[in-house]
Prior knowledge:
The chain is of the alpha+beta class. It is built from 7 helices and 4 strands; from the N terminus they run H-H-E-H-H-E-H-H-E-E-H. A hairpin with a 5-residue loop joins strand 3 and strand 4.
Amino acid sequence: MNQAMSSVLMLLRAIPLVVLLSAATPPTSAPAAPRVGEPHYPPRTIIMLVASWCAPCRGELARLDEIAAAAGGRPIGVLAIDDSAATQRMLRLVDPARVWRPDVAERTRLRAVLLARTAGLPYAVATDAHGLICAETDGGLDAARTIALVRRCPPP
């Protein structure tokens, strides 16, 4: 056995079994723990990240009334990930009360934080009474997925 292989084996023996097993455990649908410095969002809200170039996002927006009805009274906040002309045209089709537009600096930060939590769009989060993310999902919302998202959050 060469020295490199011997070093690898020594390292593997030093790693506790629980660490190796946890690395092999598939991810769950539970949300990631809040990260240090992560912002607080509007409380008890569903925030949907969308973009004009995202076809499934457009499908979500077409079902927005259905999603809102399934949200159990939680407001919907649609947050665009860019400010392009195409995205602005898309948002004109959404009830203005459902478009979330924090100020520019905060919007830039929120987009970065939320995009860091997902591999792509569509992506949505639900927040608890304190404005912290209590559940998240990707792959698009419909009534059933919205109900499941809300159920993963603690009751008020």
